[in-house]
Design brief:
Elements lengths: L1 H30 L3 E3 H5 L6 E2 L5 E2 L2 E3 H48 L4 H6 L11 H41 L4 H27 L5 H21 L1 H16 L4
Antiparallel strand pairs: 1-4, 2-3
Length: 250
């Protein structure tokens, strides 16, 4: 009886973690079309760090990358309690849902707009002429490029993250959770940070390679920094989950 109850508790845990994983990954796909300035957000001067040639590196990030650390934090927790198979399962499910979203949004940009909808939105708040259907199509079509690029980057990086996490866990056993969590992120996000930008904004967009490298580098450093800063949260989540499983909830 107790085994079946504990199994039910683990099923609920997997469902909860998977829901957080899928939701944040999906939201990041559509929010990621906007690139924002971290300097302007913080009210500081542009970094202007010397980069390739006469290029300057500013702290520009995709909005989607802001919540992405939640995805790989939850991924590490799934890997910890359910192994590589658990990560692979939710990764493929998430990729399928992203692909489904791609089809729905693509259809949404192709259907003809209602005339009254266009007429009600002919100007912006400042009174300037505004084409809402063009804005809708531009935003979501840009998001489609991100979805295509991220499907490739997401699956590859998640599978690499799962393998690296499992490999480090085999070396350290139940000790050094921080090492396998941070180490797997350092490896997997190096791929994710650049592949998605290369496909979405270089191959399918209008960015230069220098812009891809600039934003990719900033996003990679951001993810690694967050992975380190979120390490206490992984231990906290680990403690909460252990307590939850020990209670054997039905």
């Amino acid at each position: 009886m107790s085994n079946s109850i504990q199994s039910a508790g683990k099923q609920q845990l997997y469902l909860m973690l998977s829901t957080i994983f899928l939701t944040n990954a999906l939201v990041a796909e559509f929010a990621g079309v906007k690139i924002f300035s971290l300097e302007k957000l913080l009210g500081i001067m542009p970094a202007q760090i010397p980069f390739f040639g006469d290029q300057k590196l500013d702290l520009n990030l995709s909005v989607g990358v802001v919540i992405w650390p939640i995805v790989f934090l939850v991924s590490d927790l799934i890997n910890e309690y359910f192994g590589r198979e658990g990560v692979r399962k939710i990764s493929f499910i998430t990729a399928g849902m992203i692909a489904w979203s791609f089809l729905i949004v693509l259809a949404g940009t192709e259907v003809p707009p209602a005339q009254f909808w266009l007429e009600l939105n002919t100007t912006d708040p400042a009174g300037n002429p505004f084409d809402i259907n063009y804005a809708y199509t531009s935003i979501f079509r840009a998001g489609l490029g991100i979805i295509i690029g991220s499907l490739a980057a997401f699956l590859v990086s998640q599978l690499i993250d799962a393998y690296a996490f499992h490999y480090l866990k085999a070396l350290t056993g139940s000790k050094k959770l921080w090492l396998r969590a941070t180490g797997s992120t350092v490896i997997s996000q190096l791929i994710d940070s650049f592949v998605i930008l290369f496909i979405a904004f270089y191959l399918l967009g209008n960015w230069s390679m220098e812009q891809v490298l600039q934003v990719g580098l900033v996003q990679y450093l951001y993810k690694i920094t967050l992975a380190i800063l979120l390490t206490p949260l992984i231990y906290l989540a680990h403690w909460i989950i252990d307590g939850y499983l020990k209670k054997n909830p039905a």
